[in-house]
Prior knowledge:
The protein has twelve helices and eleven strands. About 40% of the residues lie in helices and about 20% in strands. Helix 2 packs antiparallel against helix 5, helix 5 (about 140-155) packs antiparallel against helix 6 and helix 5 packs across helix 7 (about 180-190). It starts with a helix and ends with a helix. By secondary structure, the protein is α/β, with parallel strands linked by helices. It has two domains: about 5-190, inorganic pyrophosphatase (n-terminal core); about 195-315, Diaminopimelate Epimerase, Chain A, domain 1 (Roll).
Amino acid sequence: MKLLEKIESAQTIAIAGHVRPDGDCVGSCMGLYNYILENYPDKNVSVYMETAESGLDYISHMDDVKDTLDVENVDLLILLDVSDVARIGVAADLFKSCENTICIDHHISNTGLAKENVIVPHASSTAEVLYDLLLEDKISKAVAEALYTGIIHDSGVFKYASTSEHTMNIAGKLMSKGIDFQSIIDEGFYAKSYRQNQILGRALLESIVFFDGKCIFSVVSAKDMEFFGVGPRDLGGIVEQMRLTEGVECAIFLYELNHLEYKVSLRSKKYLDVNKIANYFGGGGHVRAAGCTMEGTAHDVINNLAKRIDQEFKCTTE
């Protein structure tokens, strides 16, 4: 699939990410948006996403992002980092009406939801996949900042197993565009507000280990979020910090979406395939990072997850 030919043949173009957009979703969406603005100024292009996690305001044209749908149809809809129809978010209705849809993604759980799909499960990020579809000499500093953001977020600043030589080569080429890569890492990935640090501390303080210390979980309730003045987009990084606990193979973090409904984030270190576990409960993601939404009390959710995790542990030792 030649993305640029599709863009050239369309006049109205919509770019959309997934619900609760993370750094890779924002980076890839804004990278493509800025690329089209700069190289195809005659195109009518819009980007649709929910409000993103904090700390990404340095990306060019973030003020252009629309959090509500304002069109009924477009010539071309491009989904980035979206692994499932249920996760399209703001542009869900547009996906139903648009005849020409493209999905660019790197989730192993993505079976191909659009008319045309570019899915590279071994890639570090959707931003990496997108880079390979663009012309290197047409990538500006603004586009490079966005793509670099996507890569560092989903590679954990180049430490996850999905980081490859190709990932590092792309990162180097993006750095050559003159981006302030140190600030992007510090401010776009590591920086936390005081309230974010407070809720992180609360989650770690109340975490519990089980399965002889191989698993750890923590739960943040709606009341906790209200008390600390935070929302879902402020909870990024908690499950990653839990995963770093010595002796832990699997980290589980829950936060309350609605009464008896929880968003579940799963992370593993070396051998547990958390995508299989999330997929069983209607979610998905990657081998070492996945998520789903589950109903019931927090106790019910943890117990149900524990049963599947225990089965996966047994499979890895057999």
